[in-house]
Amino acid sequence: MKNSPNNIIALSFLGLLLCSCWNQNDDPKPPDQLPPYSQIGANTMGCLVNGRVFIPIKHDLYGYSFEYYQNDLTLYIDRDGERVYIALNDKSVIDTGEYDLTYIETKRIAIYYPPPFAKAFGTNPTHTGKLHIRYWDKQKHIMAGTFHFDAVREDSALVHITQGRFDMVYN
Hints:
The chain is mostly beta strands and 171 residues long.
């Protein structure tokens, strides 16, 4: 086949036609990129931060922490200094169910720390959220659930943490 101008134009047109048929809707949606909700002790966590996927990057500190001790619960996801942090330090975590994430001094905290050197966002009586423990095997030390919260910064900027999930083994 010769490379005639008509062949080059036809191939160029075909290439443009194929490119226009590519459907960007085939790309995974952010919730599909989160770890699946499970109840097996998979040691996974993730959430959406203003619709953006936020999962830990494994590095020397694993990018996450989950602690349950004497009815207090702390979890965080870290990604190079950006962090979602939840702590229920009021001895209230005793069974499955829903726990309010309204800020109560140092006893209940839900905070989003943007990348380093930016001011933190936190819950307050107006901007709140929930942590829902959906599964708890106290013999195997497995806890799984979901969370979400809205948090505000001093300058009134808002952040929305949604579709949070965790499936963790604790000590």
